[in-house]
Amino acid sequence: MTIVALDPGQTTGLFTRNAGYPLWAQWEGLNALWRALNILEPQCIVYEKFALRPRAVDLAPVEAIGVIKLFAEQRGIELVGQSPSQAKVLWDDNKLKA
What are 31-70's pLDDT values in tens digits? Predict the structure, then answer.
């Protein structure tokens, strides 16, 4: 089963395993997100949910989540949304920066 984990935004980050090897990627743009999902053909997509924060005006994550949800709905792919705090239980900022 191919599981793809996404951190949606103006720049979307991706993690998966390809032939047993970890694959990290990031890109800008919604078309690039769609193409990457098409190439990887995931059976499950895990994504970070959008959390409205005070003074946050960046809605790019909302647009990317829309693309993710449409892709999954059209193909019958399982979606798992996680809040930012759920994602940081295993991977805090220090581990991500390392």
Answer: 999 999 999 999 999 999 998 878 767 889 999 999 999 9
Start-to-end Cα distance in the chain: 28
CA distance 94 to 89: 12
Q: Are 51 and 84 in contact (CB under 8 A)?
A: yes
Mean pLDDT of 63-85: 95
Task: Classify residue 5 as left (phi > 0), alpha (psi -120 to 50) or beta.
Answer: beta
Q: Which residues make Cβ contacts (< 8 Å) with residue 17, sequence separation at least 6?
A: 2, 3, 23
